[in-house]
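Entry for the shared binder. Reason: the reviewer on the internal report wants the predicted structure included alongside the sequence.
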Amino acid sequence: MVVLGIDPGLAIVGYGIIEHIGNSYKVLDYGVINTPAKTSYAIRIKMIYDAMNKLLATYEIDEVAIEELFFNKNTKTAMDVAQARGAIVLSCMNSNLKIFEYTPLQVKQGICGYGRADKKQVQSMVKSLLNLKEIPKPDDAADALAIAIGHLSTRRFSSMFQV
């Protein structure tokens, strides 16, 4: 089972690809998709969509886990991220992939067993569970790996979260 975890954003999209074999995880790839702030919004969305298509063509992904949006007081930012997230979901749907959504609380619960774990606890667990020498950087990539691990650890219950 190969899972792509996605931490959506407009400026930075984090991604992490993990293969689950037996009781262990193997990191296939992780990183970020960056879009320049001074580029037009439409071009940034296309850049995300194209980068996702390239990523999906490179790896044989079985399922996608994506973080649900957290709406704070900045509605403009939330709308921008929501539209970028739509481009990501469209790319995955065009590749006939199953998409599962998780709140940050659910990801933390799946990684640490505690939904209120702080960022450092989650990053330490990602490093430990994936047997990495150091915490993945940038944070968006580490978050995407956490989303993938969280999905794998709660997979038997995840049919209720499927889009």
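Summary line for the report: The chain has one domain: 2-161.
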